Amino acid sequence: MREDVCLLTAVDQAAAVRSGELSAVELVRAHLERIDRLNPAVNAIVTLTAERALAEAKAADERVARGERPGPLHGLPVAHKDLHLTAGIRTTFGSPVFADHVPGHDDLVVERLRAAGAITIGKTNTPEFGAGSHTFNPVFGVTRNPYDRTRTAGGSSGGAAAALACCLQPIADGSDMGGSLRNPASFCNVVGLRPSPGRVPSWPSPLGFSRLGVQGPMARTVEDTALALSVLAGPDDRSPIALGEPGSTFRPPLGRDLTGLRVAWSPDLGGRVAVEPEVLEVLTPAVKVFEDLGCAVAEDCPDFTGADEVFRTLRAWQFAHAHGALVDTRPEEVKPSLRHNVEQGRALSGSDVARAEALATELYHRIREFFTRYDVLLLPVCQVLPFDVSLEYPRVVAGVEQPDYLGWMGACYLVSAAGTPALSVPAGFTASGLPVGLQIVGPHRADLRVLQAGHAFEQATGYGRRRPDLTDRTQPRESPL
């Protein structure tokens, strides 16, 4: 089977399998051959289940031959984020404590992808417990950026983003608390959607009412991302915040005339975040594309007062709940930044958490009012370019010292605190060839509008069609991380 089928969009791959032009076995085998050839250079897929995947693909082909109707993802190979539970397949969370952990059931996102016909081929790399937006851990090491392997692929869905950029899989699942779907998408020139809380239900989840962390899709195109969302979205009574709209709402095509769309552009969230000049050099002309599409564009920004406190307080509180026992019993096996997060959470009072919830409510209403005047908001995804893999995080952004390893991610995590859907879409490259993503934010629960705006931008620019050159087999220097 020709390996170039891996370069097709997910929509086209699925259509080829449904039509009989390709079998599921042929498609999976082509991706496994590409993984074998290219994955060692980037370390995106860290657990591979090749024999199981081929057996699943063969069984899928046999079901179709018997006359069963194929699902929308029939035959598409998917490696799941190593934070997501996979029955019978090692799930490590990037932690040595769980290096040999094999769950007995699937997370709901994995369950839904598989029910739609996707074939599990393995797991993608993530930072330890998904903490931080640079993908490295003591179990599998660092994931490298396909466009420059001396630099980070971002995180925490960094393995997924790098695998997509290298065409090792057509779609991916990920998760996002402070930017973990959006940051790596921007760094790797792919698409990542942080859906509205409840759009993609989470189960099992010990904090089922939490709105801060969400699961969602990634892909190489906006329509492929929407295809994945159409499977992942929809109600489930195991999630107390699940939204009721069916996933079919998001099924491609996404074409929409944007004439008259009211667009706000904020290069730095009203001065709340520092952004490297090279990032803005790419994004500023990209914004004009919306004017050319007939949109009314104005520089404006919602009032994000309190958003930083909301995010940091609720995140620390959740980390203390989720990881406190492990820090107590095996502190030497938990990275320092994670231990610090737990300590911060334990120092909070009930009044601190209540204040954060009150601020979140006030923020919700300011954002709601802002979107009575605008239809979408544009801003940077990342405040920096992909940085050196030897760094845990950038300590200075545009000459401004960052307080900690969260500081450089404000353009994403302030949006997380607001609870709105947000899309990272490829927006161009620097002179040195590094990708830059544009963040498109919509009103609460307006996921379809965000996807439609991103699709129109993508079709007008074509930046996402530029794939990395992986012909250089020179091994980059080792990272000290």
Q: Which terms would index this structure?
A:
single chain; alpha+beta; Amidase signature (AS) enzymes; eight-stranded mixed sheet; three-stranded mixed sheet; globular; Amidase
Topology:
Elements: H1 10-19, H2 24-42, E1 45-48, H3 50-65, E2 77-81, H4 108-115, E3 119-124, E4 136-137, E5 141-142, E6 144-145, E7 148-152, H5 158-165, E8 171-176, H6 182-188, E9 191-194, E10 214-219, H7 222-232, E11 262-265, H8 277-292, E12 296-299, H9 307-329, H10 336-346, H11 350-370, E13 376-380, E14 396-397, E15 400-401, H12 410-418, E16 422-429, E17 435-441, H13 447-461
Parallel strand pairs: 2-3, 11-12, 11-13
Antiparallel strand pairs: 1-3, 4-5, 6-7, 8-10, 9-10, 9-16, 13-17, 14-15, 16-17
Helix pairs in contact: 2-3, 5-6, 9-10, 9-11, 9-12
What does this protein look like?
By secondary structure, this protein is α+β, with helices and mostly antiparallel strands. It has a single domain (3-465), classed as Alpha-Beta Complex (Amidase signature (AS) enzymes). The protein is 36% helix and 15% strand. The chain has 13 helices and 17 strands. The chain has an eight-stranded mixed sheet with strand order 8-10-9-16-17-13-11-12. α9 (307-329) packs antiparallel against α11 (350-370) and α9 (307-329) packs across α12. The longest helix has 23 residues, at 307-329. The chain is globular. The two termini are 38 Å apart. The mean pLDDT is 96.
Strand order of the largest sheet: 8-10-9-16-17-13-11-12
Order of helices and strands: HHEHEHEEEEEHEHEEHEHEHHHEEEHEEH
Number of helices: 13
Spatial separation of the terminal alpha carbons: 38 Å
CATH class: Alpha Beta
Biggest pleated-sheet summary: 8 strands, mixed
Report the average pLDDT across residues: 96
Task: Tell me roughly what share of residues is in helical segments.
Answer: 25-40%
The CATH homologous superfamily name equals Amidase signature (AS) domain
Please name the CATH architecture. Answer: Alpha-Beta Complex
Beta-strand percentage range: 15-25%
- Which structural category do the helix and sheet elements fall into? alpha+beta
What is the number of beta strands?
A: 17
What overall geometry do the principal axes of the alpha carbons give? globular
CATH topology: Amidase signature (AS) enzymes
Instruction: Point out poorly predicted stretches.
Output: none
The count of domains is 1
Provide the gyration radius in Å. 21 Å
Pfam family, one: Amidase
InterPro entries: Amidase, Amidase_CS, Amidase_dom, AS_sf
GO molecular function: catalytic activity
Region (Disordered): 462-481
